[in-house]
Write a structure and sequence with these properties.
The complex is a heterodimer. Helix content of chain A is about 35%, strand content about 5%. By secondary structure, chain A is mainly α. Chain A has a two-stranded antiparallel ribbon with strand order 1-2. The radius of gyration of chain A is 23 Å and the shape is flat. The relative contact order of chain A is 0.08. Chain B is α/β, with parallel strands linked by helices. Chain B is built from 15 helices and eleven strands. The two termini of chain B are about 25 Å apart. Classes of the chains: A mainly alpha, B alpha/beta. At the A-B interface, helix 1, helix 2 and helix 3 of A face helix 9, helix 10, helix 11, helix 12 and helix 13 of B.
């Protein structure tokens, strides 16, 4: 199976990464090489194998729902590319 | 007394405890050497001024019960450090200053250590040569224009070049052990669940582990003892009794059963590596260990499995970098365009490639064929190890299929770059502990490592085997300081 340019552009849309045609063509070649390598897995019959979903085999713990962290709102907002008082700012979404 | 920066962690802590050296003297010695070592490009961000202040503070009222009393330590720039910029080697986090501390680094400071600075690494830990970092490649102190391995390349170079006594890296598919092997240093990836992942910039959450990178096995046991802890803040952290690794360190490995897997011989593997492996086997026998041939039949499927599982998890983890709450933003006409431009300009090529692979294998119609298939094969790989460990106590293999290569040699061929991790990736997939120790050199005089793999939570055993082998191997790095400037 090979990945065509249309698929590359579709994946880039899903991943929210814009790419131009030149980059898309280069990525197409790389992805096809990588998937050719990955498809070695098809040699194996895994019909009766249970998928491994957790390596640690632990059950999730419960804990009390308590606030433990200090108020770091200002420090958090300081990292945002654009802020307005207590809000993160993004381009207008509602017309 | 030998030069301060060339001393081991054990020597430095002893000298502080015996009041032969002060924390300030040690801290200044490492800073002074770093100022002359800019050519190696190991630092992304330094913390030198604050480190000197903290060392003076330590000396004014030294607590000598600490395990790392006043010891300056630089760490991989993948650990969030409260108030100190944390980039993960990426443009997208170029100006990110965390408001919290990772548990593993907090464990260092709680035992008296002092942050020297943040070390270069592959972008989001995705790479095997440190060449994907936004902050440029790192030089391997072993030789000019040689990669230090990756992704913890700044870390391995810093330890080998005596720029930090010890460091901590992270290992998702070999990112501690491969760079350790390339620089003639020791690197240990603990059992999944041993060291907390809280505050580590996430790459592939079911594989990521932090671990020590040091000059020798004893230092490695001392550092593991500090960083390994149960942590409520990491839901996959495991609550079990950890050893006093340094106290229980022993060269007595008499009667230990060590497995040699036949599948770890690959095409085009240099003769020196085969020879190194044979030497390791005979040293283990000399120490009284029993050598047993074993088979790990699904070894060849580990890398293809990894290149589905790791990118799938990465594509989810890296969805948070959207230019809204932190990091780099590229302006757009609307929200979607802003996301797409931010991620296109903020991520480097390798990271984008892996996000694309991950997005594809998780996308509708391909999930069963790729992701589910990989999770099933991962089960088979784990079962291989379960079977082997019913017969042996540990497994001995080479760490890498080659020594360090030239900068730029593999950057245009992702698959050949991925093959670097062929001996290290299976261990992450199975969640096991593994350590790489320097074991010899190739014809170019570049270091080569051997890997000891253990049962889950059996770090003490692989440390002891490594300690015994280290003694027999008696490796000397002979680094010439070629990069030093006045």
């Amino acid at each position: 199976m090979s990945i065509d340019l249309k698929t590359v552009k579709h994946i880039s849309k899903l991943a929210r990464i814009s790419i131009d045609d030149e980059k898309a063509n280069k990525l197409k070649v790389d992805l096809n090489n990588i998937f050719e390598f990955i498809e070695k897995l098809n040699e194996l019959n895994t019909d009766n194998v249970q998928a491994l979903t957790s390596i640690a085999e632990t059950t999730l713990r419960f804990r009390k729902d308590e606030i433990k962290s200090e108020n770091i709102r200002e420090k958090i907002l300081k990292n945002s590319p654009e802020e307005n008082k207590d809000f993160f700012v993004v381009p207008k979404v509602v017309e | 007394m030998s030069d301060i920066t060339s001393q081991s962690l054990f020597e430095l802590t002893s000298n502080i405890k015996e009041k032969k050296l002060s924390s300030e003297e040690i801290t200044k010695a490492f800073i002074n050497r770093a100022e002359k070592s800019k050519k190696l490009n190991v630092y992304v961000t330094d913390n030198f001024e604050k480190a000197i202040d903290q060392s003076k503070k330590f000396d004014s009222n030294p607590n000598l019960d600490f395990k790392l009393p006043g010891i300056p330590i630089a760490v991989k720039d993948l650990f969030c450090t409260n108030g100190v910029r944390t980039t993960a080697g990426s443009k997208i986090l170029n100006n990110f200053v965390p408001a919290y501390e990772s548990t593993v680094t907090q464990n260092l400071w709680s035992q008296g250590a002092i942050l020297l600075g943040k070390l270069n690494c592959d972008e989001f830990a995705m790479g095997s040569s440190n060449e994907t970092s936004f902050f440029g490649n790192v030089q391997n102190p072993v030789g000019e224009n040689l990669v230090p391995g990756g992704s913890s390349g700044g870390s391995s170079a810093a330890v080998a070049a005596n720029l930090t006594p010890v460091t901590i890296g992270t290992d998702t598919g070999g990112s501690i052990r491969q760079p350790a092997s390339f620089t003639g240093t020791v690197g240990l990836k603990p059992t999944y669940g041993s060291c907390s992942r809280y505050g580590i910039v996430a790459f592939a959450s079911s594989l990521d582990q932090a671990g020590p990178m040091t000059k020798n096995v004893k230092d490695c046991s001392m550092l593991l003892e500090v960083i390994s802890s149960f942590d409520q803040k990491d839901s996959t952290s495991i609550d079990y009794k950890r050893n006093n690794y340094s106290k229980e360190l022993s060269k007595d490995i008499k009667g230990k059963k060590i497995g040699i897997p036949k599948e770890y011989r690959v095409d085009n593997m240099p003769d020196e590596i085969e020879q190194l492996w044979k030497n390791g086997i005979s040293y283990a026998k000399d120490c009284g260990a029993e050598i047993i041939d074993i088979s790990l039949p699904h070894t060849n499927y580990a890398l293809p499995t990894y290149y589905i599982v790791a990118p799938a998890e990465a594509s989810s983890n890296l969805a948070r970098y959207d230019g809204v709450k932190y990091g780099f933003r590229s302006p757009g006409q609307n929200l979607i365009e802003m996301y797409e431009k931010t991620r296109s300009e903020g991520f480097g090529d390798e990271v984008k490639r892996r996000i694309m692979i991950g997005t594809y294998v998780l996308s509708s119609g391909y999930y069963d064929a790729y992701y589910l298939k990989a999770q099933k094969v991962r089960q088979l790989i784990k079962k291989d190890f379960d079977n082997a460990f019913s017969k042996v106590d540990a497994i001995l293999t080479p760490s890498t299929p080659s020594s360090a290569f030239k900068i730029g040699e593999k950057t245009n061929d992702p698959v050949s770059m991925y093959l670097n991790d062929i001996f290290t990736v299976p261990i992450n997939l199975a969640g096991l502990p593994g350590i790489s120790i320097p074991a010899g050199k190739d014809k170019n005089n570049y270091p080569l490592g051997l890997q000891v793999i253990g049962k889950p939570f059996d770090e003490q055993n692989i440390l002891n085997i490594s300690y015994a082998l280290e003694d027999k191997i008696n490796f000397k790095n002979d680094i010439s300081d070629w990069w030093l400037s006045e």
